[in-house]
Amino acid sequence: MKKTAQQLAGEAVLSRLVAEVDGASFSFQEASQVANFIRKTGKRQTTRFAGHLELGSSLKIACKIFTKVMHERPATWKKLSAVSEAARCQGQQAAVQIQRSYYLNNENETQVEHDNIVKGYRYGKSLVPITDEDESQMKASSERCLSLLGFSPETCVSTHQTLGSSVQVVVPTPDDQNAGAAMSALIHALYETKNVGVARYIARKNAAPRLVALLPQIKASHECLLMLHLPFMEDIRQYTFPSLSGPSGSATPSAEQLAAVDSLISSMDLMSADRDEDGERCEALKPKLTMNPLTQRVFQCISQRALNPDSTLPDMDPGLHHVLEPGQALLSLCSSALAGIKEAFPLMRVEKKDNKGTAVWKESSDLDVEGQGPSVKKPRVEEETDFSMASLARGEVTEVGTLDPVADFCRIVTRNDYDFNHCCRQLQGTMMKLVKESFGDSQYRKAMDCLRCLRRECLQVSY
C-alpha cells in the first residue's frame, strides 16, 4: 500500500528523533516478538529479620536480613469449572470451591466432624493421637534471634551440604554507624582468616531453630554476610557406592583419557563462550541475564490462549533454545575436543560368547555312565514347594498374615472351599499393610514378592 504524504512526514520525524537519541526503531512484528518475553519484575525489598547478631552475651550488632536468591516459581493455576451452572449463566468459567468430608471406615460410613479430627503419628503398628494443645506444648518456646555459636574454616562448609531454597544476606542496620563498623570488622576478619561463622537462627517467635553459616562477601559497592542453611545429622543421607577403579583397576582412566576430558572442559568454558556487542568474549548463561525457559514458556502459552481462545498452543520460541541446548559457537569450539573424546573412549560391540562347550556337557549328561543310551531322568523336585516341618506345625491357614504372606496365600488358594477373589483381597490388604508399616524400605521386598505371587496366580486362574 502506498503511503500518504502525512505518513512519510511522520516517519521522517521519527527517524530524526531516533538518530538524535542514538536509538533504534523496530517494526510492529519485531516489537510483538519482544513483548512475548516476560521480563523480571522488581521485587519489594522485604525484611526477613530485624534484630541483633549476638556475639556472646556482651556484644550485639544491630542487623537486618534480606533474601538475595530464591527459587521463583510460575504463577499457580486456579481450578475453574467450565460446565457449572454459574459458567453457563455468566458466560465465563467459575471458580471451584473445595469441600472436604471425613468418614469412618465402617459399614455405616459415619461422617466425622472437622472439630473431632486430630493428627495421628505412627509408632510401630500403633497410631498415637496428638491434639492441637499437645502439639503446641511439644514446640520449644523460643524468641527470634541470630546468635553466633563459633567459627569454622571455609573448607568445612561444603556446597552439597547446604539446605533451603534461598540465600539470604545479613547487613548492618542502615544509619547505624556503630553497627556498620562492627559488622565491617567481622566481615574483614572472616575474609582474611578464611573462616565462616556458624550461628543459631530463629526467624520468628517459637519457630524451629536452624543452623546457618555466615560467609563474608566484600564487593566494591557493599560488604555483607551471606547466610546459608546447614543440615543437622538427620538431614544428611549417607549412601555407599562402589569404587570406580574396581579391584582390577580396569576402570582407572589413562593419561590420554584424562587429557582428553581436560581439553573438553577447557573448550566448553562458559566464561568465554559468548560475545558482547563489541565482539569481545564474555560469559555465557549469566544468571542475571538468563531467563527461566519454563516461566517464559508458560507466559507464551497463556498470552496465546488469552488472545486466541480457540487456537492451539504455539511451538517453543526459538529464542529459548539457547538456554536448553549448547550454542553453535560453543559446539564449534569443542568439536576437536569431542573428536578426542571419541578416540580416547572407543565404543566396541561386545560379541556374545559361544556357549557350545556348555551345550556339549549338557548333552552328554543325558547319557548314562555305561553309554547304553539316554539315562532315565530323575523326577523334578519343585523348588518353590512350601512343605516343611514348620508348615506341619503351623496348622490350618485361614487368612494371609504378614509373617509369610506368600506361603499363606499359596496354601489357601489350593483349598477348594475358599473363594479366590477373597484370597486376592486378603493378599492385597497385606501388601498395603507391609508398605505402610514398613520401617524405611525393610518390608518392600516382601511386598514385591506378594505382588509377583498374586500376578502369577491370577494368570493361572485366567487361563
Q: Secondary structure elements and their pairing?
A:
Blueprint: H1 5-20, H2 28-35, E1 49-55, E2 59-70, E3 80-81, H3 85-90, E4 94-95, E5 102-103, E6 111-112, E7 119-123, E8 126-130, H4 132-138, E9 145-153, E10 163-172, H5 177-193, E11 195-202, E12 210-218, E13 223-230, H6 255-267, E14 274-275, E15 281-282, H7 293-307, H8 321-324, H9 328-333, H10 335-344, H11 356-364, H12 389-394, H13 405-413, H14 420-436, H15 444-462
Parallel strand pairs: 1-9
Antiparallel strand pairs: 1-2, 2-10, 3-4, 5-6, 7-8, 9-11, 10-13, 11-12, 12-13, 14-15
Describe the protein.
- Helix 6 runs antiparallel to helix 10 (335-344), helix 13 (405-413) runs antiparallel to helix 14 and helix 14 (420-436) runs antiparallel to helix 15 (444-462).
- Strands 1-2-10-13-12-11-9 form a seven-stranded mixed beta barrel.
- Residues 359-390 have low confidence and may be disordered.
- Helices cover 35% and strands 18% of the residues.
- Strand 7 (119-123) and strand 8 form a beta hairpin.
- Among the domains are: 49-71 and 139-235, Ku70, Chain: A, Domain 2, CATH 2.40.290; 269-344, Ku70, Chain: A, domain 4, CATH 1.10.1600.10; 390-462, no CATH class.
- The protein contains 15 helices and 15 strands.
- One of its GO terms (cellular component) is Ku70:Ku80 complex.
- InterPro entries: DNA_bd_Ku70/Ku80, Ku80, Ku_C_sf, Ku_PK_bind, SPOC-like_C_dom_sf.
